[in-house]
Amino acid sequence: MTEPRTVSPRLQRVGRLLLRMLGWRCVGEPPGVTRAVVLCGQHSSNWDFVLGLFGMWAFGLWADWIGKDSLFRGPLGWLMRASGGIPVDRSARHGFVGEVARKIRDGEAGTIVIAPEGTRSYTPMWKSGFYRMAEQANAPIVLGFLDYPTKTCGFGTLLHPSGNVAADMEKIRAFYATTTPMYPERCGPIRLLDEDAP
Question: Which parts of 140-194 fold into alpha helices (H)?
Answer without folding.
Answer: 165-176
